[in-house]
Amino acid sequence: MKKGIMGALIAITIFAVGLGVMGFTSAQSGELINTTQQVGIWVSGEGKVTVVPDVANLTLGVQVESATLADANQKASAAMDALVNVLKTQGVADKDIKTQNFNIYPVYDYTKDIGTPVIRGYQVTNTVTVKVRVIANTGKIIDASVAAAGDAIRVNNISFSVDDPTKSIDQARELALLDAKAKAEQIARVTGVSLGSVSYVSDSSSNVARIVPPSFDSKAGAAGSTTPILPGDTDLTVSVQVIYNIK
């Protein structure tokens, strides 16, 4: 009997040391937390702040197809020049216009008679990202871009974000830490222990931008009509993981 008790104590000791050396895994996130602490209360917390976006991010471009590469490239260049010029006249700064990609592709015809693909022309695509700092002007900028580039225009997507989310994220982090502390205090109270100091903290934040599919007013471009753009709101979220010592 004594040997059995002694063996069980040795096994428990080895297990506890193993936890101290290897750390333990979060049951919720599966993340391995490296710590030499053998006992404690592990909790997670989340804080969320909802804000109104102050920036619209547009992805605009031109796409042209022609029988010759030189003609396709020339027409695409002219359409992009017109697009960039109108963006500037609408108050978009040079630093807020950035080339995203430029592609040239051969366009093939596939016929049963020939059996092999034949080049019928070339397609040139040029895309830019545009940061609109006055969201109220977004619809007007889209309409002006459509008018400037004509049939070559491509509006790929629109997203909304907060240009400087620092204060809001700080607020969300504080809420997340308070959430974690409340959970730890409840666990300590129910289990009959005293909550000690914090021995580990980690956090992650996210700025969830809302992406809106491109849409156009059926009368876009007509006098007194502007493409409606509704930014809604944006959620800024911070998640934390905290380990508290047990007194």
Summed up, what is this model?
InterPro entries: 26kDa_periplasmic_antigen, SIMPL/DUF541. This protein has 247 residues and is α+β, with helices and mostly antiparallel strands.
What does this structure look like?
This protein is an alpha+beta fold and 247 residues long. The protein has two domains: 97 residues, Protein of unknown function (DUF541), domain 1 (Translation Initiation Factor IF3, 2-Layer Sandwich); 107 residues, Alpha-Beta Plaits. The strands form three sheets. A five-stranded antiparallel beta sheet has the order 5-6-4-7-9. Strands 3-10-8 form a three-stranded antiparallel beta sheet, with helices on one face. Helix 2 runs antiparallel to helix 3. The longest helix has 26 residues. It is elongated, with a radius of gyration of 29 Å. The N terminus is likely disordered.
CATH secondary-structure class of the largest domain? Alpha Beta
| Derived structural class | alpha+beta
Count of helical stretches: 4
Strand content: 35-45%
Portion of residues within helices = 25-40%
**What kind of sheet is the major sheet?**
5 strands, antiparallel
CATH topology of the largest domain: Alpha-Beta Plaits
CATH architecture of the largest domain: 2-Layer Sandwich
In round numbers, the mean pLDDT is 82
| CATH superfamily placement of the largest domain | Protein of unknown function (DUF541), domain 2
The strand order across the widest sheet is 5-6-4-7-9
Q: What general form does the structure show?
A: elongated
